[in-house]
Amino acid sequence: MLLIADSGSTKCDWILYKNENENPIRIRTKGLNPAILSKKALKTIINNDIELIKYKELVTSIHFFGAGCGTKKNQKKVDKVLTSFFEKANATTSEDIMAAVYATTNEPAVVCILGTGSNCCFYDGNSVHVKTPSLGYIVMDEGSGNYFGKELLRTYFYKEMPDELKLSFEKQFNLNIKNVVEKLYQSSTPNKYLAEFARFLFENLDHPFIEKILIEGMDLFVEKHIMKYAEELKTVPLYFVGSIAFHGKKQIEIVLKRRGLKGSNYIRRPIDNLLNHIKTQKLH
Fold first, then answer.
1. Range 59-64 average pLDDT
2. Number of compact structural domains in the chain
3. Contact assessment for residue 212 and residue 182, using Cβ atoms and an 8 Å cutoff
4. Which structural domain, as residue segments, surrounds residue 49?
5. Whether pLDDT at 284 is above 60
6. Does residue 252 sit in the same domain as residue 208?
7. Rounded alpha-carbon distances, angstroms, from residue 12 to 64, 115, 226
8. CA distance 125 to 108
9. Is 9:31 a contact under the CB 8 Å cutoff?
């Protein structure tokens, strides 16, 4: 049985595939990011999932694509965790940008991820080229859920958020200062915590204050990341993957239009396309 996983920092989508005659089985767990979680924490997430336990003896091949898997060290870390649980399986771990590429194109393109974190690359049809190395959620991640979570918290605690939004924000989240500081500085996944605030943006899209935050954040992502590939974009399409990109399509298109660009496709979850790619390429 083939197992494919597409993991961000917040959630991981799994799909189990046996053959053409049986429907794939879909599972969702917490995200498994080896850059911010220990091997023990990764094992706990997998070991505690009842659905994965059901199939652990049947899985023979695993393709894992994940945030934080851009280094050999972290790839080996995930491989070891997976093969210790799925004892009959061989595991291959790649960074999440490869999942985004495989989910969108077989041809040259510029491909972006906007989820809990953000990333951008040029795919030449064979290899991925990244011009801006990612320094993660503390320094970079413009346009991501993590980035927008920080922006919302800043505007709230700087008392810049309009009253009607402030009241709604307070009802939806625990904004006790002690709790916020603890989540930011004592949690093992502060980026995941920050990204949880992003849904507030998309629940209040009609408010001009929210639209301004979104457009400014997306403009930063376009400027700092996408425009590094301005030459390539003269001849290849631009694709987006991730929940922030999917829900923020309108704002992304506004800032792209200013630069004479347009997104060709927006995919919320790449897992289905990943399965098709692996089957087509006979990688299983």
1. 95
2. 2
3. no
4. 2-98+270-280
5. no
6. yes
7. 10, 12, 26
8. 5
9. yes
